[in-house]
Amino acid sequence: MKKVLKGLLAVLTFTTIFIAAEVKASDGIGLTVGVDYWSSYISKGMYSYGDQQGWFFPYASFELISGLSVGVCGELNSAWVGSKSEEPEYNGAQKDYNAFGGGLDYEYSAEGLFTASVGLWYYRTKNNFWSYGTAYAGFDLDMAPFVTPFVMVTAEHYTGDNTTEKGFKESYKEYSGNSNRTDIYLQAGLKKSVEIAKDVAGLDFGAVVGYLRLRSFGANINDISDIDFFVNSSVTYGLVTFTGGFHYVIVPSKELKYDAPVKEDSPYGGEKDIHRFYATFGASVSI
Fold first, then answer.
1. Four-way CATH pick for 2-286: 3.30.465.10, 2.30.30.40, 3.40.50.300, 2.40.160.40
2. Which helix (H) or strand (E) covers residue 189, if one does?
3. Residue 172 phi, psi dihedral angles, 5° rounding
4. Do the Cβ atoms of 32 and 241 come closer than 8 Å?
5. pTM of the full predicted structure?
6. Does position 15 have pLDDT exceeding 60, yes or no?
């Protein structure tokens, strides 16, 4: 099955590049196809799914009308891609967290004043127990001098009902100890964009603080989850844009600065891990 998926991805990639080569940039139809790679999937200061390996994020989006786009995306654990079940390092749970998502994004800009954005997405994981929907709203104050202050609030709601791990089956409430499924994540920060070469190369950097209200899967956390210092770069060559970035994440929360969201005195906690890092790379084609 994995060979089929990789074959389809290769065919789609080369087909898109071929079509893009035949379309003038000025005649763009609003379609973007690309893939990103993260050296570690860190979200809200946490290693997603407790996994510290790299992840691939293939995606495609299409602008329906000005500011409104529809998109699809995937989340693939790099340890799963190319591995075989008989290999010693293979972990059957790797595939459970692979996901396919779809959603809508809308952005409105009042030039020189502000930019507002909202979105609604749903992610279906291989093991449906971890599937979730997410909604966000963001606001950038573009009129501020030198830097751009911004805020964003995100809500996530898990929808899975029963675990499907081999050997047992539990409902969400049995697994988590309660029925709470919704997490709220608030971010506030500053960022700066620098155009190195007009319409060709750019750089943006900044810092953002995240506050997390975590209730899903039996957690009960209200704390500053992460402080993320980031720098991202982009280079456009024809219809192709290459991106790269680096994130230095400080995790001040007592519960989250260990490998898992557990209390500081819990015997199940991992080693203290306050300073976390990950790099990102990507390429996309827009036509």
1. 2.40.160.40
2. strand 182-197
3. -60, -45
4. no
5. 0.84
6. no
